[in-house]
Amino acid sequence: MAEQKNPTIAIFDFTDCEGCELQVIALREKIIDLINKVEIVNWRLAMEETASDFDIALIEGTPLTPDEILQLTKIRKTAKILVALGACAHLGGINSGQDPARPRLSKNIYSTDYQLKVDRAFPLSHYVKIDAVIPGCPVDQDYLERCLSELIIGRIPKLPAYAVCAECRAAQVSCLLQEGRPCLGPITIGGCGAICTKNGKECTGCFGLLEGQNEEALIRIIGKENLDEQKNIFLANENRANR
Question: What are phi and psi of 144, to 5 degrees?
Answer without folding.
Answer: -60, -45
